[in-house]
Amino acid sequence: MSTTKGRFLTFEGPEGSGKTTQLKILAEKLRAAGHDVVETQEPGGTRIGAQIRQILLDQASNDLKPTAELLLMFASRAQNVDEIILPALAAGKIVLCDRFTDSTLAYQGAGRGLGADAVYDIDRIACRGLVPHRTVLIDIDVQTGLARATQTRMEQQPTAFHRTVRDTFLQLANDDSRRIRLIDGARDKEAVAADVWDAVADLLK
Ligand code: TMP
Predict the structure, then answer these.
(1) From ligand 1's centre to the CA of 12, what distance in Å?
(2) Which of 39, 103, 136, 172 to mutate to test ligand 1, by most ligand atoms within 8 A of the CB atom?
(3) Which of 58, 161, 180, 194 is most buried when burial is the number of CB atoms within 10 A of its CB?
(4) pLDDT bracket for residue 4 (50, 70, 90)
(5) How far does residue 89's CA lie from ligand 1's centre (Å)?
(6) Which residues line ligand 1 (CB under 6 A)?
(7) Which of 52, 55, 107 to mutate to test the pocket of ligand 1 (most atoms within 8 A of CB)?
(8) 177 inside domain
(9) How does pLDDT run across 109-133, given as a tens digit for each residue?
(10) How many structural domains are present in the chain?
(11) pTM higher than 0.85, yes or no?
């Protein structure tokens, strides 16, 4: 949505990539540089979204069907877009979002096998053309990432599921290298943070 004055930056990655830590480091650096920064997350980010996140990630939701999972991801996102993201962008702020539609392409589109077309169709309704100005993809191999992760319903999926997720992220970055910047997350967090800064700096002038 090029009409907005703000900047919309998203962080993506497989489980345990360290993207949430990196989002917080970037937020602090941007605030120190005088920017007005809003942090949010998917699923979640709003009061309604937090309740949806609870349903999605609770291990007790093991009877949740893939299509319902897809729609709940977008229900949370639609609320976040209208309540937090678009108003902040209209006010000229920098919005940092921990996961967005690239995660849905990787987890539901590919991992659950629902297909990219279904994801893009619902994205048109939920996000109405809002695409991140830049996406930082923090990559980590599946074994290392899962060893770092905590146990949510998604993290408990088989290793093959997480391989598909990671491969899809890498493919997305390959297909759109202008927007999606691939960063190796298997290094110390200062080295990763320096790369994150380099990946977004041109947008902040
Ligand atoms: P997080 O733990 O990184 O906040 O992400 C929450 C989990 O939800 C993670 O396992 C990825 C998953 N997820 C999806 O499956 N689809 C989505 O669209 C999003 C945003 C997250």
Answers:
(1) 9
(2) 103
(3) 180
(4) low
(5) 23
(6) 15, 41-43, 57, 73, 98-99, 103-104, 107-108, 152, 154-155
(7) 107
(8) yes
(9) 999 999 999 999 999 999 999 999 9
(10) 1
(11) yes
Residue 116 within any structural domain of the chain: yes
* Amino acid residing at 85: I
Report the pLDDT value the prediction gives residue 149, as an integer from 0 to 100: 81
Indicate whether 108 belongs to any domain: yes
The DSSP string of 72-133 is: HHHHHHHHHIIIIIHHHHHTT-EEEEES-HHHHIIIIIIIS---HHHHHHHHHHHHTT---S
Does residue 2 lie in a domain region? no
Residue the block writes with tokens 């977008």? 74
CATH number, residue 27: 3.40.50.300
Q: Mapping DSSP to helix (H, G, I), strand (E, B) and coil, where does residue 27 land? A: helix
Q: Can you tell me the distance from the alpha carbon of 6 to that of 96, in angstroms, rounded to the nearest whole number?
A: 11
Q: Which of 24, 39, 42, 165 to mutate to test the pocket of ligand 1 (most atoms within 8 A of CB)?
A: 42
pLDDT digits (tens, 9 = 90+) for 45-94: 999 999 999 999 999 999 999 999 999 999 999 999 999 999 999 999 99
pLDDT above 50: residue 2 = no
